[in-house]
Description:
Blueprint: H1 4-20, H2 25-46, H3 71-102, H4 114-119
Amino acid sequence: MELILPFLIGILFSASLYLILHRHFFKLILGLILFGLATNLFLFVIGRLTRGGSAIIGQGENVATEPFADPVPQALLLTAIVIGFGIQAFAIVLIKRVYQSFGTTDLDDMSTTDQIEENH
């Protein structure tokens, strides 16, 4: 499992960069979403896959006696997932609004703003 995840992360980063370089607005947003997911998976792997007890040290102890899971990467991942979900919801609304305004999601067709003034 630990050998498969770095390759999966690399594939996700590569696919996200491929989609980001497209001139289609929807593919650009999808690439950014994949980039965020790949980053979350990278942070998950960096935080180690080993299971351990809680990071609570008992009263009268100075050091944990058994291996424990690091709570910082877990907190970072939860925060990143929540923020990513909000950004994805905003991006979906943005794509809908851009399509309503321009009638297309191609970035080359959206380069001129004169079309908007002619329609209104």
